[in-house]
Amino acid sequence: MRLLAAAVLVTTMPAAALNPGVALGIDLGTSGVRAAVVEKKTNGGVAVLEEASAAWSDAEGRRPEVWLSKLRETLKGCDQLAKVERVAVSGTSGSCLLVDADTGKVTRGPLMYNDAVEPSSLIDAAAPPGHCTRSATSALAKLLHWARERKLENEVICHQADYVASALASTEKPVLVSDWHNALKLGFDIDALEWPSWILERCLNADERNTLTRLRVTRPGDVCERVVSAEASEAWGLPAGVEVVGGTTDSIAAFVACATDIDKGALNVAAGDAVTSLGSTTALKLVSKTRVDDSSVGVYSHRLEDNWLVGGASNAGCRVLRDFEFTNDELEALSMGLDAAATNTKGIYPLVSTGERFPYNDASKEPVLPPRDGGDRAAVLADLLVGIADVERLGYLALKERGASPLKAVATAGGGARNPQWAAMRSNLLGVDVVRAANSDAAFGAAVLALRG
């Protein structure tokens, strides 16, 4: 585990931080692509002009040509592209591929964010304790995996968001720029803002160093001399000269969406503010004055403006509700009777299969569930919901125990955000206010990031 105090104070950025204009946000998720065109209003707020999306299957989502074809399909459904001045792209964290340095053509197809490779002894020997590159799914582990397969020749590693942003800017020559968020698991030092010597000197040979250092890394949202060419303008329907700014990961784009005050156009982030995403799994992100990294439980920190964003994700989550075959109508009706003061007296731990990663690192952890044949469906649902809420409580406690700032407020994203009775229960367990985020769409978050500059 590594703790590092931030060198700057946490700030709440005012509405004036938004630059005038219209921005396009693109999010490449696990199930498809979404786009949002966002405009800064004269009163300082932000408005969504339009949204569009296209879905892909799991198999299609592993193919770069599908990313581009589905994005083209999505943008064809947008009528406001002529107003766009900036574009930002977010993609699934840890999804990366190799391309030719001269042509940008894919030389080795993507390994996705959840693809594990054989751990590298070089990383084990060189990486700082607790560093996120020690994971078998890290981008650095994947780069060394490719190097073991065959020699790296005139190739550049890039992330999903980097690849698509380059295609938006130029259809002929690659303009490969990454960002602090995507490059974290590739080993980019987000304190010194450079590739660290422990990677360049101890993990990589000369060809492998070139594969890495050809990829420029910039601040998310920053202008980086990457603009839509005339040829790309015809291909995508965007005005020539539009700035394709530094991107981000899908989860941080969703955090930005949740943290944005739409009426004021301000990104409200102060130490202790957090976002819980209640989807199939339970993901936590907490703004902290202190950086925290502990790869043993999947905890790592991103830079977000002048703050640290500490995150962790549990395997427990709302997927268990579908496993118990609760319908949407049942969830709504039976939640009406939830006891906001309930606690997890039965020790429910709502996994759907063996194994947990956060807040415990326990591959053998077994689910603890209510009886499936119980006749009282309301009681079963209450047990499951208090169990998920308790995992959320334990998660924020685990971040605090590792040195992160204490929790002060939670905004909620994901399907579980639509349940106000559950929010009251979670607020009681967490001891802080819990609200539903006004907008949690990652494409919206990417567009806001582009507007902010």
From TrEMBL:
Gene3D superfamilies: 3.30.420.40. Residues 275-451 form the Carbohydrate kinase FGGY C-terminal domain. GO terms for biological process: xylulose metabolic process. SUPFAM superfamilies: Actin-like ATPase domain (SSF53067). It holds the Pfam family FGGY_C. Keywords: Kinase, Signal, Transferase. Residues 1-17 form the signal peptide. It comes from the Eukaryota. One of its GO terms (cellular component) is cytosol. One of its GO terms (molecular function) is D-xylulokinase activity. PANTHER family: D-RIBULOSE KINASE, SUGAR KINASE. Belongs to the FGGY kinase family. This is Carbohydrate kinase FGGY C-terminal domain-containing protein.
